[in-house]
Design brief:
This protein has about 240 residues and is α+β, with helices and mostly antiparallel strands. The protein has two domains: about 140 residues, Jelly Rolls (Sandwich); about 80 residues, Winged helix-like DNA-binding domain superfamily/Winged helix DNA-binding domain (Arc Repressor Mutant, subunit A). The strands form three sheets. It has a four-stranded antiparallel sheet with strand order 1-7-2-5. Strands 8-9-11-10 form a four-stranded antiparallel sheet. Strands 4-3-6 form a three-stranded antiparallel sheet. A hairpin with a 5-residue loop joins strand 3 and strand 4. Helix 2 packs antiparallel against helix 3, helix 5 runs antiparallel to helix 8 and helix 6 crosses helix 7. The N terminus is likely disordered.
Length: about 240
């Protein structure tokens, strides 16, 4: 779980540098990344990085987003959710098109992926950070594949909430509080469920005293180990 405190106003590139570039990185390397960065801002529902002709690497400087894939006949799939501090691979249009859609007012720094990776080669500590983040993304993709392929509706929602606890949860009374920026429809689309099913599973988890909900976005996880069990996760080895 992440402990959040009010974030001071910081230049988006400084946020990127603090998260991705190691302390003491050569000034010319830092300057090269700064020259490659393209700044964008979007309100909820905006997708300022659509229709790019090249693969992009995007740093979410603030806010929250969903990565949406589109197929023929207007079909869409929410691939992942990304939050402030995340580094996202945004492919150019291929067999599917992708867009990074803001869930709330968000700031981005985008880089041409080819130029970004070429610049990172000059500093192994940067490539190590990119590799670490890539492995985390791969792990999340595998977890979601298992969730979509083998889990019940209740296990899917419990898995989603447990993952959000790790990523954006604020500790509270032995559990944690989630301020979810995504809608119930977004959650349902991401999990391959209907909104009605998601609402029903929230009700069941409330009745089991595993979660409490306040308004449209605040969810309190009151018993995370029990929620993990409901998610079908294996017990952690002692």
């Amino acid at each position: 779980m992440n402990q959040h405190s009010p974030m001071p106003v910081v230049n988006p590139f400084e946020r990127f540098a603090a998260a991705i570039l190691p302390a003491g990185v050569a000034p010319d390397v830092r300057a090269r990344f700064q020259s490659l960065a393209r700044h964008a801002v979007a309100d909820a529902g905006g997708a300022p990085l659509e229709h790019q002709e090249q693969d992009q690497i995007v740093f979410v400087a603030s806010g929250a987003t969903k990565l949406v894939a589109r197929a023929s006949l207007g079909r869409e799939q929410i691939v992942a959710f990304h939050f402030a501090g995340d580094l996202v691979s945004l492919p150019a249009r291929g067999r599917h098109s992708y867009s990074l859609v803001a869930l709330q007012r968000s700031e981005f720094l985008s880089f041409c992926a080819t130029d970004f990776l070429a610049s990172a080669q000059d500093a192994s500590c940067i490539t190590n950070e990119i590799l670490r983040r890539s492995l985390v993304s791969l792990w999340r993709c595998r977890e979601k594949s298992i969730t979509l392929g083998r889990k019940t509706a209740q296990e899917r929602l419990a898995s989603f909430l447990a993952t959000m606890a790790d990523r954006i949860g604020v500790p509270h009374d032995g559990g944690c509080v989630l301020d979810l920026p995504m809608s119930r429809r977004d959650i349902a689309d991401s999990l391959g469920l209907t909104i009605e099913t998601v609402s029903r599973q929230f009700t069941i988890l409330r009745d089991l005293a595993l979660v409490e909900t306040t308004g449209r976005s605040t969810v309190t996880l009151t018993d995370i180990p029990a929620l993990e069990d409901r998610a079908g996760h294996l017990p952690v080895a002692a």
